[in-house]
Specification:
Length: 254
């Protein structure tokens, strides 16, 4: 073999080995990348989403009840005289049922002026009547008495007094503490469900990957009403507070 052929042969051999090594290296790197890409979704799938719930019957410990008295007349004095008669009737009614002192608060007097209108409905300067209004707010812890007395207001109406009243509002003052308690119980319930499913699937529950708490629903007893913003019932003394919690937990083989 002449002097020129031998260097050329070695160059071909070196180039061939380099190509083989490069091919093997690329294959190993590609296979590892494939395994890693395949393993990641597989690991992510090893999770379980469960929903837990908790419900408590709670009782309102504060009642807020509002009543309005009105008087209307062609003069302010006449309107006040009529309103005052209704006001005295309300004060007497409340005192008779032991609602007095700080339990009853009266607002300032509100005044509405009703004016004449032309044929097009435009308001004129001429005054037809003046209407005066005062609000009484009863606040008490005796929620049962408010519930009972509110139904007796009709006796004032029968006496010709101008009185309106709203339905009493019944609220729970320690609602913040109750919310934390029911959320904790719903979370524990979700975890217990995950444990039950995992055990029967020959797996074990791992870390919590995501937790979502639904909006609390405070409804009258046995109600199925649910809203996205949450129900907050104030019409009933007895209420149900419901919490729903969803957990996304990791699942591992035993």
């Amino acid at each position: 073999m002449n002097g020129y052929a031998r260097p050329l042969l070695w160059s071909v051999i070196v180039l061939s080995v380099a190509i083989v090594v490069s091919f093997v290296t690329s294959a190993v790197v590609a296979s590892r990348a494939y395994v890693q890409r395949g393993a990641q979704p597989f690991d992510l799938k090893k999770s379980l989403t469960v929903t837990g719930s908790a419900k408590h019957r709670i009782t309102a410990d504060l009642a807020i009840w509002k009543l309005w008295v009105t008087g209307e007349g062609k003069t302010v004095e006449e309107a006040f005289s009529k309103m005052d008669a209704s006001e005295q009737g309300v004060r007497s009614f409340l005192a008779r049922h032991a609602f007095a002192g700080e339990m009853v608060r009266a607002s300032a007097i509100g005044t509405d002026v009703h004016r004449k209108k032309d044929e097009k409905g435009n308001e004129l300067r001429d005054v037809l009547t003046y209407e005066l209004t005062r609000t009484f707010t009863v606040t008490t812890e005796d929620v049962r008495k408010v519930e009972r007395v509110a139904g007796e207001v009709t006796e004032l109406l029968k006496g010709g007094l101008r009185i309106m009243c709203a339905a009493p509002e019944y609220v729970v003052r320690n609602l913040g503490e109750l919310k934390m308690k029911v959320i904790a119980e719903a979370t524990a319930n979700a975890r217990a469900r995950a444990e039950l499913i995992a055990t029967n699937s020959k797996c074990r529950v791992g870390e919590v990957r995501e937790a979502r708490a639904g909006v609390l629903q405070i409804t009258p007893p046995w109600s199925t009403e649910v809203t996205s913003s949450g129900v907050n019932d104030t019409t009933s003394i007895e209420k149900d507070i419901t919490s729903v919690v969803s957990l996304d937990v990791a699942i591992h083989a035993q």
